[in-house]
Amino acid sequence: MNYLSTRGDTSPKKFCDILLEGLAPDGGLYLPAHYPQIDAAQRAALRSTFNNEGYAALAFEILSLYIDDIPAADLKAICLKTYTADVFGTAAIVPLTPLEEGIYLEALSNGPTLAFKDMAMQLLGNLFEYELARRGESLNILGATSGDTGSAAEYAMRGKKGVRVFMTSPEGRMSPFQQAQMFSLQDENIHNLAVTGVFDDCQDIVKAVSNDLAFKRNYRIGTVNSINWARLLAQVVYYFAGYFQATQTDDQKVNFAVPSGNFGNVCAGHVARMMGLPIDRLIVATNENDVLDEFFRTGVYRVRGSADTFETSSPSMDISKASNFERFVFDLLGRDGAATRALFGAQLSGTGRFDLSADARFATAATRYGFESGKSTHRNRLDTIRATFEQHGVVIDTHTADGLKVARECLAARPLAAGTVATLVLETALPIKFAQTIVQALGREPDRPAKFIGIEALPKRVMVLPADVAVVKAYIEAHCPEPFPA
Ligand SMILES: *Cc1c(COP(=O)(O)O)cnc(C)c1O
Question: What would the pLDDT profile of 312-330 be if each residue is shown by its tens digit?
Answer without folding.
Answer: 999 999 988 898 999 999 9
